[in-house]
Design a protein that fits this description.
heterodimer, A: mainly beta, four-stranded antiparallel sheet, 10 strands, about 50% strand, B: mainly beta, seven-stranded mixed sheet
Chain lengths: ~120, ~110
Amino acid sequence: EVRLVESGGGLVQPGESLRLSCAASGFTFTRFFMGWVRQTPEKGLQWVANINEDGTEINYVDSVKGRFAISRDNAGSSLYLQMNSLRVEDTAIYYCATYCERSDKCLRRFDYWGQGTLVTVSS
Amino acid sequence: DIQMTQSPSTLSASVGDRVTITCRASQSINVWLAWFQQKPGKAPRLLMYKASTLQNGAPSRFSGYGSGTEFTLTIASLQPDDFARYYCLQYSSYPITFGGGTEVEIK
């Protein structure tokens, strides 16, 4: 069974940092691009970042470039999101998800999701 | 950025109804569109990809159609489990973008 379990969310003040983790199991982690998606009631779903199998290709939404960093540990089947200089508008539920699989020609996006972790940025 | 516009934002329907949700892209995305279903307190679930390909395990009453800028998701006969929020996603180019969602509610 595919499992993605996020952790690391919490309440922080503007300007502070937080590191999200995602533990993957039940599938071959190294075969997948991975990504982060966030959700708020006001803005809905927003793709945040994705990373390829070996970490050499990374993409970010403009609003987090220079502040967030996605990374992965293939030996430990884990995905990370380092979030620096947090802003009130970064408040959201953050989901870890499989982004695509190259052997599937990357036809799909986000076929497996974690349960999400809540990040609240407030003074 | 490619803007994705879904309509309607809310749809009231009864069990057994045929319902259709539309998603329009601000520029051509070929067939690079996916549909997701989300229930309260849960993560989204992939239903459809490449505009019209049903994800493994998704019920066959769901179908997708379209290419270019206009796409539809149709539920042939609405079931109690289908009352949820639905989102489209374009993955033709970065930044990949979601539509604003359509709530399918009980009439």
